[in-house]
Write a structure and sequence with these properties.
- It is a single chain.
- With 479 residues, the chain is of the alpha/beta class.
- It is built from 14 helices and 9 strands.
- It folds into 2 domains: 212 residues, Glycerol-3-phosphate (1)-acyltransferase, CATH 3.40.1130.10; 263 residues, no CATH class.
- Helices cover 58% and strands 9% of the residues.
- The strands form 2 sheets. A 7-stranded mixed β-sheet has the order 1-7-6-2-5-3-4, with helices on both faces. It has a two-stranded antiparallel sheet with strand order 8-9.
- Helix 3 links the parallel strand 3 and strand 4.
- Helix 4 packs across helix 5 and helix 7 packs across helix 14.
- The model has no long low-confidence stretch (mean pLDDT 87).
Length: 479
């Protein structure tokens, strides 16, 4: 059952995300268990990603209220998820009963780790929309400490960075970055008091996770670092006459290099660091005002050309002549479901961290239900039509299967079409902006070049993650 649930979750994730990249599988030991710790920025999508990408058996601990969710609760029980009873969720329960329930849950997780499994835990204890960690709870440290003390083969702590480019957006990208096991200080095990030992271990986890996610002080800092990483990449590729968007791995590595460089230089050169940040922020604001990405400053500035006319003609034929029949069917079958999901997300889901979870799990449940419903209607419709049309083949199941398949295929075509139309319109907008703002574009190109040189020169001599490959793109390199 677990294998099929894993495949089902993977299907949902690879449908929602355009790109799911995993790095660091070699960092997971095969001869022992441990705990996987990660930050929690995206609701139920975070554990789904770890469950579907981590190469070893994973046991989750989750707050007990989630077991009451339709379908989700059933899946969690099948996976052997251990309920965690948080004090703030059980105010009506006597304190002693709370302690007993939590002690039982923690002991179950400890036993599984001692047996060689991994337990995936989110030490913050709550999902959120911040670009940095919330204060960590000590539960993960206490579980690991208990397992460490009772195991002959000592377990490990594996930090995982979850990096989303647009976590709530359909067909966006995500990187699951599995880091090497934590190296805990030797003096930690000399502490006799278990509570004090757990507090110190929690501090080590917080430090490690902060480095694993490249935590930012606020969203302005987050946007500035991401813009700086992309302007360096765009400038580097433009010198070869190449234009194109970056993969999620390139984005994360670029930010990682800047984050490490920032923390190595800010104490020694605070004024120069702040000057660079101010320039990057102004460049970012100018680019956002134009609605352009860094690599879109390059390329043919002409509004129209023979190549563009050929591409436009082919797109018109495809979008206006070949796809409309399937699109019509796709809208008839799937549009009410799509509208219901989007309406629910926009009007009833307040926090950004919950939107992807609601979209993903409601889509997994509602779209197949829609196709089954239309297949059922086709089946009974065929039975009703047979007396009226005697020559109609008496195979109602074939009609049901046909309508179900058409519903599924047309749903895919519908979303691909909508995405393609959006991208085509955005491309026209970029060309129109570049045509109207040629002088402004030239100024931004010069500033991008100057900032790129400044940032690269300022980082010379530093030990930074990743490496530049032969294709002039960043990669993780050998671990």
């Amino acid at each position: 059952m677990i294998v099929w649930i894993r495949k089902f979750v993977q299907l949902g994730l690879y449908t929602f995300f355009r790109e799911v990249e995993v790095n660091g599988l070699e960092n997971v030991p095969t001869d022992r268990g441990g705990i996987v710790i990660a930050w929690h920025p995206n609701g139920m999508v975070d554990p789904a990603l770890i469950f579907s990408t981590f190469p070893r058996e994973v046991v989750f601990g989750a707050r007990h209220g989630l077991f009451q969710w339709p379908m989700l609760g059933w899946i969690m029980r099948q996976l052997g998820t251990v309920p965690i009873y948080r004090r703030q969720d059980l105010k009506a329960m006597p304190m002693e009963e709370q302690r007993l329930k939590n002690a039982e849950s923690l002991q179950n997780l400890t036993n599984r780790i001692s047996e060689g499994a991994f337990s995936a835990l989110f030490p913050e204890g709550v999902s959120h929309d911040d670009p940095c960690l919330r204060q960590l709870k000590s539960g993960a440290a206490r579980i690991f400490d208990a397992a460490y003390q009772s195991s002959s083969i000592k377990p490990v702590i594996i930090p995982v960075g979850l990096h989303y480019d647009h976590k709530q957006r359909f067909r966006s990208s995500v990187l699951v970055n599995i880091h090497p096991p934590m190296v805990l200080p030797d003096e930690l095990w000399l502490i006799e008091d278990a509570k004090e030992r757990a507090e110190m271990m929690t501090q080590e986890m917080e430090k490690t996770l902060t480095e694993a996610i490249y935590a930012m002080e606020d969203w302005e800092m987050h946007r500035n670092f991401h813009r700086a990483a992309m302007l360096i990449r765009a400038e580097r590729l433009s010198q070869e006459g190449r234009v194109g968007s970056a993969s999620i791995a390139e984005k994360v590595i670029g930010v990682a290099r800047l984050w490490n460089g920032y923390h190595q230089r800010k104490e020694q050169y605070p004024e120069r660091v702040q000057q660079i940040i101010d320039r990057v922020e102004q460049y970012r604001l100018d680019m956002e005002a134009l609605g352009l990405l860094d690599h879109q400053l390059d390329g043919d500035p002409r509004w129209i050309s023979r190549r563009i006319l050929v591409i436009l003609a082919l797109q018109t034929v495809l979008y206006m002549l070949l796809l409309p029949p399937l699109l019509l069917v796709g809208y008839m079958i799937n549009f009410p479901t799509m509208f219901l999901i989007r309406y629910t997300v926009r009007n009833f889901v307040q926090l950004e961290k919950d939107r992807a979870s609601v979209q993903l799990f409601s889509s997994i449940a509602l779209y197949p239900t829609t196709w089954v419903l239309w297949s059922t209607l086709a089946y009974f419709g065929h039975l009703q039509a047979t007396p009226i049309f005697p020559n109609l083949p008496s195979v109602p199941i074939a009609s049901a299967l046909f309508v179900g398949c058409v519903g599924m295929i047309s749903c895919i075509v519908m979303f691909v079409y909508l995405r393609a139309i959006t991208r085509m319109l955005r491309a026209w907008k970029v060309r129109w902006t570049k045509r109207r703002k040629q002088g402004y574009i030239a100024m931004l190109l010069a500033e991008r070049q100057a900032l790129s040189r400044e940032l690269i020169g300022f980082s010379e001599g530093l030990d930074l993650p990743g490496e530049l490959g032969a294709d002039n793109k960043l990669s993780w390199g050998e671990s």
